[in-house]
Design a protein that fits this description.
The chain is mostly beta strands and 319 residues long. It is built from 2 helices and 22 strands. 45% of the residues are buried. InterPro entries: DUF6807 (IPR029475).
Length: 319
Amino acid sequence: MSLKSEYIEDKTLRVRYGDQVLFDYIYRPDTHAQYCPRPYFHPIRTLAGDILTNDRPTDHPWHQGLSLTMSSVNGMNFWGGHTYSRETGKYANIDNVGTQLHCEWIDEKPIENGYAWTETLDWIGPQGQTVFTETRTLTIRDIDPEVGFWRLVWESDLTNTLGETIRHNSYSSGEGLQGSGYTGLFLRMSRGFDRTGVHIFDNKEIPEWDDYHDSETILDSPDQLNGWKSSRLAYQGIFDTSLNGCLILCEDLTENPPYTNHWFCRPQFPCLAWSTAYHDTHTIDVGETFRMKHSLGIANGFWTKERAQTLWLGTTESV
């Protein structure tokens, strides 16, 4: 089998593996302005055909599959929906929501066992000002139909073009809302994906499985994950209807990151963010570039921690 891609109506990049649609990347969305229009992936499928993502769920319609978010950029909202204020202690809809505007595709090329696409974007503030220019590279690689595994690597370079210093934070680090570290690459998962366990890798050089649960079966709630500091995690679940298992392997691959990676999640619904500002506010000077590189691996089936560790060791060195 091989990867095949097509551009649909200059709005969607559709990628197939064999006869199956692997994902749609909607780069010119029709999103409501209050929900922060931005390019996003949906659906993302496993090689077994199960849909991992959710788009515009009723509880948070500004959640859009897999997308890049920043909840506070000098007070501007680049994740959509309500904005939290420490002064009022409440969320409110205010005129501070921005847009991520796709400009053009500047490169696409095959790589070993995969393919890469590069685009440029402008981050536009609520008053029409350009806040960031971004170069984004999306890479599909490590496709293994026998294992049922494939991986997406997301790289973003955001350069401050606002003309003033940018302060980037989350509601946790900026407004003091405990536990609300929501910012960064955000994955809203299907309601039909039932989470069953989380594992943490804390050592990037020699990946050891640091299991913070009490039991070897790893069936405790993953909600303890919120605020957890690590560069890697393995997240196990099962899909409704098909009853197929799925393991997602998530990793922060940023070299010399200007932030400390923490994971953000919520107990009410399956979601996950590579939070770049959970506890800290970051200053981005005029002309300075803020870099992120994250990986999402998707594997079919049910995995023991030993098997997942072997899978990770077999793929991570190629990134």
